[in-house]
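input
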Amino acid sequence: MALESRADRHRSDRAVTTVEYSLVLAGVAALVVAAFVTFPDAMKHLYEQVFCQLGGSCQANAGGAAPSIDPWDSPDPVVRAKWGNMVVLGDSYSSGEGDDDYGVTGSTSSCHASANAYGPAVADSVGMSDRLRVRACTGATLSNLDGPYRDHNQPPQIGTIDAKTSLITMTLGGNDLGWSGVLLNCIEHNVADVPLDPTCRARHDEEVNQRIRALEPRLEKAYAALHRDAPHARIVVLGYPRFFPAQPTTDLLKAGRSIITTSDEQWMNAKTAEFNRTIAKAAAAQGVEFVDTTSALAGHELTTQDPWIFGVDVDLVAAWPPIKQVQHDIHPTSAGQAAMARLAERQINHP
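output
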């Protein structure tokens, strides 16, 4: 047998070495892939560190700490909420109708933005009072979010938010539901005491159901617009508190006369809960945080000894209709707004 030449041995050794190198590299690659899958955050940080060093773009910092990240990407929810400006949008449940001390920064005077509303309380708790703007306005509807509110000389509310907005809170949709009109109509019929007059539920249930269904896609569209104009903001949407105790046992009285029956109260509670579920569903569809305030006034609803919600001003002697149109009717008092603030704060601090 001919002796193997030096060149042949070299080629043979090189082939073996090449196979070994290939196996080693394949093993290393497999380990890297496994590490990224098992420890994604740690490997991402290592990757960023290596390549920022190679590119010479690492920020100078003491002790070789990891490069800083944008605050809106922070794992701390409070950091994500408070790095920029806070804006309160929406209707009278956010403006604080009836709670006096009107004229919070950023508001139009006739919108009745109160210093006693939940928004300023939340801003104070997270240290954002100096960066708070309130555009919530009494009577506002979804159309006033991206369109002018001429009744109160207010430009579109959404114009207040931008890429520097880190926290948005709002209540919106109640006026589109026409809830106050339904409530007053129920009171008028109860006061009139017409024989065989249909109940409040019978007169308004299907109408309210249709409005709730129609509002869901409109709410989704509104939340998407907030994301678009304030891409780095946490958006916290509050629902509406129920007006009456969870298990009503007492008619709402005026001068000893029933103006809302326990049956009406049960129905109104049920519709409020249904509306809140619709708001929550629309919020979830758009990645918006929802705060359920259904029970915010628990123990302090209408008909209780210490209500945290304004009642209805009814004149039983005046000519028809016996309702005085008072703006703050069926709105949270300062104590009710404080209760809403506590729920909003809890969501902001522990989403």
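quick obs: Strands lie at 85-90, 132-134, 165-171, 234-238, 252-254, 257-260, 289-291.
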